[in-house]
Structure formats: structure tokens, C-alpha cells
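Incident log, support desk, overnight shift.

02:14 A customer reports that sequence design results differ from what the structure should imply. Their input is reproduced verbatim below. On-call engineer (initials T.W.) acknowledged and began investigating.
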């Protein structure tokens, strides 16, 4: 699998976790860019708008924050029970930006994981 195929696989993994999450109770706009390094490296963004979540494979300039994550860690993070806070404590994920917006997304994915 080449780097572009691996990158698109990462985008689909994020979509599978976030796009079906129940965002009906989120009335604010949130845009977080995800910077993937290493295997399948690239940029994607997650946006909550009109109480729905979208994940797209491009650079988003008007963002509330950025997540930095190693491509090889994405499957483990999205498919395990590891929390965002635990991943940050272990320096597996780094975040820069509006922490309130990040926590809203963190809680959204946690609820979605619990429903699975």
C-alpha cells in the first residue's frame, strides 16, 4: 500500500468514528485540523456544523485547533478505549488551539465509542 492509499485509509477511519456520532446537541461550529505524520501522512479536518460532523481530506485554514498524530497510532487510538487525555499524557497526540472545542469533540467520540 502506498502512502496516498494509507492516508485515505486514515481519513476513512476518522470518518467511521466521527461522522456517525450524534452531534444534535452541539450548537457551535468546531473545526479541527488533523496533521498525520509518518505512515500515511497528510492533513485532514473534522468539522461540526449544523449539528453534524464532517471529515474531509484537506487543509482547513479557519480552524479552532490542530491535532498532531503519528499515522501508525491512528488505528489503535480510534479503535481502542484509549482516551484522548491518556494519549496526550503519553505524548502520542499533541494539540494546539482552543481546548474547549477539542473537549467537545473528545466527548462526542467517547459517546460514539460507548454506543458501538
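02:41 Re-run completed on a clean worker. Output:
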Amino acid at each position: 500500500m502506498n502512502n496516498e492509499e494509507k492516508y485515505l485509509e486514515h481519513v476513512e477511519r476518522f470518518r467511521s468514528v466521527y461522522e456517525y456520532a450524534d452531534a444534535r446537541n452541539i450548537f457551535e461550529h468546531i473545526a479541527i485540523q488533523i496533521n498525520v505524520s509518518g505512515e500515511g501522512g497528510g492533513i485532514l479536518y473534522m468539522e461540526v456544523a449544523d449539528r453534524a460532523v464532517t471529515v474531509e481530506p484537506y487543509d482547513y485554514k479557519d480552524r479552532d485547533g490542530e491535532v498532531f498524530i503519528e499515522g501508525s497510532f491512528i488505528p489503535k487510538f480510534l479503535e481502542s478505549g484509549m482516551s484522548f487525555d491518556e494519549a496526550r499524557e503519553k505524548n502520542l497526540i499533541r494539540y494546539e488551539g482552543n481546548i474547549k472545542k477539542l473537549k467537545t469533540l473528545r466527548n462526542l467520540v467517547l459517546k460514539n465509542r460507548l454506543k458501538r
